[in-house]
Design goal:
Layout (H helix, E strand, L loop, with lengths): L3 H9 L11 H7 L9 E7 L6 E3 L7 E3 L1 H14 L3 E6 L19 H12 L4 E5 L13 E3 L2 E3 H18 L3 E3 L7 H11 L6 E8 L6 H6 L20 H13 L4 E5 L5 H11 L3 E5 L1 H12 L5 H14 L4 E4 L2 H10 L1
Parallel strand pairs: 1-3, 1-4, 1-12, 4-5, 5-8, 8-9, 9-10, 10-11, 11-12
Antiparallel strand pairs: 2-3, 6-7
The chain binds ligand PBG.
Length: about 325
Amino acid sequence: MQDKTHLVDEITGHRRMRRNRKADWTRRLVQESRLTVDDLIWPVFIVPGSNILDPIPAMPGVNRMSIDRLVEAAKEAADLGIPAIATFPNIEMDLRDETGSNALEANNLINQATIAVKKAVPNIGMITDVALDPFTSHGHDGILRGDEIVNDETVEQVVKAAILQADAGSDIISPSEMMDGRIGAIRRGLDAAGHQNVGIMAYATKFASGYYGPYREAISTAGLLKGDKNSYYISPANGMEAIRDAAFDVEEGADMLMVKPGLPYLDICWRLKENFGLPTFAYQVSGEYTQIKAAAMNGWIDGERVMMETLLCFKRAGCDGVLTYFALEAARKLAKG
Ligand code: PBG
């Protein structure tokens, strides 16, 4: 009778996966994916006023910042080596209306923030969103006519907003409102306005997700939103549709693609990268951040470890980088080595 150990040796003796895992040096040598500070984009929330750091209850550790505080934060981010920030404004309620007209004010909160950051921290990239949800009284990303979010009229407005954002110094326009045809329209609009060097990061595949809850609290759209966004975001059930949607964005001139939310959609990240080969980013959205923070605050998981693991997993799934509320925390940790 052979003993068990012997049997295992005979069958599997030549396949020892653990050889490469045996020591720290072998593990480092064979490591396939790596997270560096160059992979991080930091989404930030802006509020009017000065010297304001307003904590967002559903996002422990994240603050809404007035522009002066944002400039300080952007300096810190740049010093840590973070390549870019993405700004999201919390617009005063009395400036919000049916069509989101404040998006067409050259001097609105988001454009003021871009101007201030670009002046004080010229070496950090500014990524700005042109969706109308921070500006509308109903919380939708587009113009609401009756009970329809009208596509082409929204696109027209979004193009104008994009040009104003580029005028203010935005480096990359990232349209998140998922209207059809917007990427081509924004490209043509930017070019006609002399902004050939301003890029477009398409929210190529944005899913109708429950993970956006804390974000809607952060920019105060949660209480406003009438109905849902299912008529313009992609169903979480549809992978092929997401690829088709992204293909149009590529055709229309997107420079970069984004998948949102992140972790539940790693398959989409992989498929976009495989299909198009464009720089591809995941947005680890507010609900993903909150889940990790909440579990960590309860002592149920090691928050820092899970933060670094999730960020690395985006790289393994083919992403070139991640928009994450953890950007500063992760950058500090990476700096420590
Ligand atoms: C809408 C928008 C959303 C997010 C950013 N811009 C989704 C939404 O409110 O429907 C979500 C970001 C996050 O959850 O971190 N244009």
